[in-house]
C-alpha cells in the first residue's frame, strides 16, 4: 500500500462522512446501491461511516460520471483506457468515465462484451483514494492500479486493510475478515 | 452507459466491442529497444508522464527511445513487479494497455507503490532508497 505525499487523511472530527451523486447524472437507485456496497467495504474495517445525502453541494464526497474533458485537467478517454479517478483527502471528488460500459449487477465475467467493466470494483478502488490510499503493487489488492475488463474484484486484501487502518485505526467490530458477511467471490462457486 | 445486468447489454454495443481502446496502439512497439526511433513513442511518453513516471511535461516529447523512457520503463516494471528490463517486452506492453485508474502511480517523482518503499532509478537500473 501507499499514501499520497504528505499522507493526507480525513481529520478525526470528520469520520462520519456524507456522499452525494451528481444530480445531472440521474442515477438509478440500483447504481447508487453499488456505491453503498463499495463504501461498506471500507467502513467494515475502519471507524469511518458513510451516509448518502441529497445535498450535492454540502456532501463530503461527491460522485459523478463525466465524459471527455470535464474541467479538472484530467479528461477521460472513451471506452477503456482510464476508467475513473479520485482526489486525495479532503477533496472528496470521485469521477468516473461515463463512456465505459458499466455493469451494475450480474456476473461480469460472463459478459459477452469485452469492454464490460464492473462498477463496484472500480468504485471500491476509487474510494480508497478518497480516503488517502495511493496505488499498491500487490496485484490482489483493491488499490492495484489496473483492472481487466470483465473482472470483478471488490474484497479488500490484507494490503488494503493494513494501509487504511494505519490511517484511521480499526473498526472495533471488525473481526479480521472482510468476506464473512458478504456474498462476493462469485467465481469460487463454493462457500459464501 | 449502465447495464443493470450483463444480459441487458444491447447488440450494437457487442458489435462495437472490437473498437480500439485508447492504448492498444502501443502494442506496435513490441520489441522496441533503447536507441531506436519510432513514430508514436511520444504518445507512450505522454502515458508515462500522465502516470508520473516521466516527471516533466514538455510541450513535445520526441519519438526517440531515450534514457528518459528507459528509466520510466524500469520504474514502471518495478512497480508492477515485472522483469525490470527497461525494454518494451510483451509482458510490459500487456500491462500498459490494460484499463486502469487515472490517478498517477508516481507523485512528485517519488513512488512508494512497490512494497511501500520510496524508490528512484538511475538509468543503470540500480535501486536507491531515499531517506524520505
Uncertain spans of chain A, ≥5 residues at pLDDT below 50? 180-192
- In whole angstroms, the N-to-C terminal distance of chain B is 43 Å
| Separation, N- and C-terminal Cα atoms of chain A | 27 Å
Shape of chain A: globular
> Beta fraction of the residues of chain B?
5-15%
Number of strands of chain A: 7
Taken as a percent bin, the fraction of beta residues of chain A is: 15-25%
Order of helices and strands of chain B: EHHHHEEE
Rg estimate of chain A, integer Å: 16 Å
Q: How would you classify the helix and strand content of chain A by structural class?
A: alpha/beta
> How many helices of chain A in DSSP terms?
3
Rough shape of chain B?
globular
- Averaging pLDDT over every residue of chain B, what do you get? 82
Largest sheet composition of chain B: 2 strands, antiparallel
Tell me the radius of gyration of chain B.
17 Å
Neighbour order of strands in the largest sheet of chain A: 2-1-3-5-4
Overall pLDDT score of chain A: 91
Number of strands of chain B: 4
Give your account of this protein's structure.
- The complex is a heterodimer of chains A (192) and B (132).
- Chain A is of the alpha/beta class.
- The radius of gyration of chain A is 16 Å and the shape is globular.
- In chain A, α1 packs across α2.
- In chain A, the strands form two sheets. In chain A, strands 2-1-3-5-4 form a five-stranded mixed beta sheet, with helices on one face.
- Chain A is built from three helices and seven strands.
- With 132 residues, chain B is an alpha+beta fold.
- Chain B contains four helices and four strands; from the N terminus they run βααααβββ.
- Chain B has a two-stranded antiparallel sheet with strand order 3-4.
- The radius of gyration of chain B is 17 Å and the shape is globular.
- The C terminus of chain B is likely disordered.
- The chains are: A alpha/beta (192), B alpha+beta (132).
- β4 of chain A pairs parallel with β2 of chain B.
Amino acid at each position: 500500500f501507499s499514501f499520497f505525499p504528505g499522507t493526507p487523511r480525513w481529520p478525526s472530527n470528520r469520520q462520519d462522512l456524507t456522499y452525494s451523486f451528481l444530480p445531472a447524472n440521474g442515477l438509478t437507485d440500483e447504481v447508487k446501491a453499488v456505491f453503498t456496497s463499495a463504501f461498506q467495504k471500507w467502513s467494515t474495517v475502519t471507524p469511518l461511516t458513510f451516509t448518502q445525502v441529497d445535498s450535492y453541494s454540502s456532501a463530503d464526497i461527491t460522485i459523478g460520471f463525466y465524459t471527455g474533458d470535464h474541467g479538472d485537467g484530467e479528461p477521460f478517454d472513451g471506452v477503456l483506457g482510464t476508467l475513473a479517478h479520485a482526489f486525495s483527502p479532503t477533496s472528496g471528488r470521485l469521477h468516473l468515465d461515463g463512456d465505459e460500459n458499466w455493469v451494475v449487477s450480474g456476473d461480469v465475467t460472463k459478459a459477452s462484451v469485452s469492454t464490460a467493466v464492473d462498477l463496484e470494483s472500480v468504485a471500491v478502488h476509487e474510494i480508497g483514494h478518497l480516503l488517502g490510499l495511493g496505488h499498491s503493487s500487490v496485484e490482489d489488492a483493491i488499490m492495484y492500479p489496473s483492472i481487466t475488463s470483465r473482472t470483478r474484484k471488490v474484497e479488500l486484501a490484507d494490503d488494503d486493510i493494513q494501509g487504511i487502518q494505519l490511517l484511521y485505526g480499526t473498526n472495533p467490530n471488525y473481526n479480521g475478515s472482510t468476506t464473512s458477511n458478504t456474498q462476493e467471490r462469485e467465481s469460487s462457486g463454493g462457500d459464501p | 452507459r449502465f447495464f443493470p445486468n450483463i444480459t441487458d447489454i444491447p447488440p450494437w454495443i457487442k458489435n462495437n466491442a472490437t473498437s480500439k481502446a485508447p492504448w492498444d496502439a502501443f502494442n506496435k512497439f513490441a520489441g522496441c529497444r533503447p536507441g531506436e526511433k519510432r513514430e508514436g513513442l511520444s504518445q507512450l511518453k505522454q502515458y508515462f508522464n500522465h502516470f508520473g513516471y516521466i516527471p516533466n511535461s514538455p510541450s513535445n516529447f520526441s519519438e526517440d527511445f531515450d534514457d528518459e523512457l528507459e528509466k520510466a520503463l524500469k520504474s514502471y516494471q518495478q512497480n508492477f513487479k515485472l522483469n525490470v528490463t527497461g525494454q518494451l517486452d510483451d509482458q510490459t506492453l500487456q500491462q500498459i494497455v490494460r484499463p486502469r485508474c487515472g490517478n498517477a502511480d508516481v507523485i512528485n517523482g517519488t513512488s512508494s507503490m512497490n512494497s511501500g518503499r520510496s524508490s528512484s532509478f538511475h538509468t543503470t537500473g540500480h535501486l536507491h532508497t531515499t531517506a524520505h
